């Protein structure tokens, strides 16, 4: 056990600080330089974390629901009280500018409180003179939670808030690209959560597969790419672990001709580029009606040219770097390919030379089958696509293996709702974007996921139904 220095955060296993025997590097993406290291959990560390979570499970499960809710409320206060310190760690490892990083920490605290508004239902499926049949919801057991680097804290708390409230215990693994904020949070929560209820371990690429193969887990809750989701589903099959998969998206926004361009342009822009476009539910294909196409394209390009992109530690930066080198290379490759194919690439303003920065980039009406349209870029390149009729745009929007979310923009709300019902996605926003609440499920349709998070549906994913037949 060691006391932590500024960024030398331990893992939290069974209520203990554990430094581990090996390290991984953590890079500041605004500089492209290693600024910290984190524990690289080995099989023995994982075994210890699973053992601790298993040992804590009976006690936490037996803790009254209201008491668990209270404990999570206390955890929310710890996040809020330490939001400035956590935001700084977040920005240094993730890249997102400080003010927005703090929003994520406070958002996670809000989730811990918001989930507490749910209660677990008991369904009575029969109540006759002979018997009463009750269906209770019981926790699944020990959950392996695996999260990505784009929202490393909020997406962790989407899992923690539901799973712990429902009475499960957890071993959580942040992304190797962004381990520090969650390691620090677990350390801060040592005084609040009973030992073993939440264990946080970090590690390199080997750790995720080690977790999904571990027989000590009852459920895997995963957020990340569709490719990894498929591997996890295969791995979970060996002993039929329950799974929830929140995967990739290629969300379409449909902009009808009656919108007020001055009113919507900036919100549309942020819906695509917030967090440097590294959001599962970001607009990744923007379908604009032909009557307003040129005018809206020019407005969006105007915004791309003036929006400040820079180191998140500098005041005034609105957009940070791409979070990691492989992703930077991938998105840069898409940008280069678009140019090589002779597509019209509309580049944003200048970006710093150092670090993983890319200009906020639009592609002017590329062919529907180009990679920039069909693939999830997950970086600052957005195709603008021209359409002329509702039937045509609905068909094009639905022509994707993904089905995460989408948006319709129009002054005619009835028409927008009618279009929303025709989109094959788990969420549709009308005249808004990037919205999610603790009370509302986010469910990936098609290859965007299995199951859902948030809302009562999300809470129930961390439970199993248990029927009890009671004679009278
Ligand atoms: P990723 O799939 O590469 O990694 C996600 C996590 O899985 C990381 O912690 C990683 O270490 C781990 N991992 C990688 N391979 C594994 C394996 N074989 N077994 C177990 N764990 C493994 O995803 P990423 O690049 O970190 O995140 C970006 C992707 O996440 C995008 O596709 C994005 O759309 C998606 N995402 C989805 C949601 C959602 O709610 N649907 C939210 C955010 C991000």
Features:
38% helix, 24 strands, 472 residues, Aldehyde Dehydrogenase, Chain A, domain 2, binds nicotinamide-adenine-dinucleotide, 7-stranded mixed beta sheet, Aldehyde Dehydrogenase, Chain A, domain 1, 15 helices, alpha/beta, 6-stranded mixed beta sheet
Detail the topology: elements first, then pairings.
Blueprint (H helix, E strand, L loop, with lengths): L10 E3 L2 E3 L4 E6 L4 E7 L3 H20 L2 H17 L1 H12 L3 H18 L7 E5 L3 E9 L2 E5 L7 H12 L3 E5 L6 H9 L9 E3 L6 H7 L5 E5 L2 H11 L5 E5 L4 E5 L5 H13 L9 E7 L3 H14 L18 H16 L3 E4 L13 E4 L6 H4 L6 E7 L2 H9 L3 E2 L1 E5 L3 H10 L4 E4 L11 E2 L1 E2 L2 E2 L1 E2 L1 H6 L2 E9 L1
Parallel strand pairs: 7-8, 7-10, 8-9, 10-11, 12-13, 12-18, 13-16, 15-16, 18-19
Antiparallel strand pairs: 1-2, 3-4, 5-6, 6-24, 11-22, 14-15, 17-21, 20-23
The protein binds nicotinamide-adenine-dinucleotide (NAD).
Keywords: Oxidoreductase
InterPro entries: Ald_DH/histidinol_DH, Ald_DH_C, Ald_DH_CS_GLU, Ald_DH_N, Aldehyde_DH_dom, LUC3-like
Family: Belongs to the aldehyde dehydrogenase family.
Short description:
38% of the residues lie in helices and 24% in strands. The model has no long low-confidence stretch (mean pLDDT 97).
Can you walk me through this structure?
With 472 residues, the protein is an alpha/beta fold. The chain folds into 2 domains: 3-247 and 448-471, Aldehyde Dehydrogenase, Chain A, domain 1 (3-Layer(aba) Sandwich); 251-437, Aldehyde Dehydrogenase, Chain A, domain 2 (3-Layer(aba) Sandwich). The chain is 38% helix and 24% strand. It has 15 helices and 24 strands. The protein has helices spanning 43-62, 65-81, 83-94, 98-115, 154-165, 180-188, 207-213, 226-236, 261-273, 293-306, 325-340, 371-374, 390-398, 413-422, 455-460, and strands at 11-13, 16-18, 23-28, 33-39, 123-127, 131-139, 142-146, 169-173, 198-200, 219-223, 242-246, 251-255, 283-289, 344-347, 361-364, 381-387, 402-403, 405-409, 427-430, 442-443, 445-446, 449-450, 452-453, 463-471. The strands form 7 sheets. It has a 7-stranded mixed sheet, with helices on both faces. Helix 6 (180-188) links the parallel strand 8 (169-173) and strand 9 (198-200). It starts with 10 loop residues before the first strand and ends with a strand. Bound molecules: nicotinamide-adenine-dinucleotide. Residues 146-150, 155, 173, 175-176, 208-209, 212, 223-225, 228, 231-232, 246-249, 280, 376, 378, 404, 444, 449 line the site of nicotinamide-adenine-dinucleotide. Residues 22-467 form the Aldehyde dehydrogenase domain.
């Amino acid at each position: 056990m060691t006391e932590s220095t500024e960024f030398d955060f331990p893992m939290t296993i069974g209520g203990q600080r554990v430094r581990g025997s090996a390290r991984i590097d953590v890079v500041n993406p605004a500089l492209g330089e290693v600024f910290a290291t984190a524990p690289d959990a080995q099989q023995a560390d994982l075994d210890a974390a699973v053992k601790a979570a298993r040992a804590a499970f009976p006690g936490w499960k037996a803790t009254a629901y209201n008491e668990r809710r209270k404990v999570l409320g206390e955890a929310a206060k710890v996040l809020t009280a330490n939001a400035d310190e956590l935001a700084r760690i977040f920005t240094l490892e993730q890249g997102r500018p400080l003010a927005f990083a703090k929003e994520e920490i406070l958002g996670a605290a809000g989730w811990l409180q918001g989930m507490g508004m749910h209660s677990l239902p008991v369904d009575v499926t029969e109540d006759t003179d002979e018997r009463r049949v009750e269906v209770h919801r019981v926790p699944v057991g020990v959950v392996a939670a695996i999260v990505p680097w784009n929202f490393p804290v909020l997406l962790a708390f989407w899992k923690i808030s539901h799973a712990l409230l429902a009475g499960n215990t957890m071993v959580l693994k942040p992304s190797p690209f962004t381990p520090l904020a969650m390691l620090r949070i677990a350390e801060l929560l040592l005084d609040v959560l009973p030992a073993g209820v939440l264990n946080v371990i970090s590690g390199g690429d080997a750790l995720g597969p080690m977790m999904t193969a571990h027989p000590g887990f009852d459920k895997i809750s995963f957020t990340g790419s569709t490719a990894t989701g498929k591997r996890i589903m295969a791995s979970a099959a060996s002993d039929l672990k329950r799974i929830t998969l929140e995967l990739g998206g290629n969300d379409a926004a449909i902009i009808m001709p009656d919108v007020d361009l001055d009113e919507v342009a900036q919100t549309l822009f942020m819906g695509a580029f917030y967090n440097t476009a590294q959001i599962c539910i970001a607009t990744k294909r923007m379908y604009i009606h032909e009557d307003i196409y040129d005018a809206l394209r020019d407005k969006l390009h105007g915004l791309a040219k003036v929006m400040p992109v820079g180191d998140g530690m500098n005041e005034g930066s609105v957009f940070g770097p791409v979070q990691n080198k492989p992703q930077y290379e991938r998105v840069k490759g898409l940008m280069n390919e678009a140019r090589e194919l002779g597509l019209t690439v509309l580049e944003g303003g200048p970006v710093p030379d150092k670090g993983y920065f890319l200009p906020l980039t639009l592609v002017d009406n590329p062919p529907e089958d180009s990679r920039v349209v069909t693939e999830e870029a997950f970086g600052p390149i957005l195709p603008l696509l021209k359409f002329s009729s509702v039937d045509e745009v609905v068909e094009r929007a639905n022509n994707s293996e993904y089905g995460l979310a989408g948006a319709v923009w129009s002054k005619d709300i009835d028409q927008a709702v009618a279009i929303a019902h025709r989109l094959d996605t788990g969420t549709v926003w009308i005249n808004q974007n990037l919205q999610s609440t603790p009370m509302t499920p986010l469910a990936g349709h098609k290859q965007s996921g299995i199951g859902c998070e948030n809302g009562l549906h999300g809470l129930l994913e961390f439970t199993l139904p248990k029927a009890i037949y009671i004679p009278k």
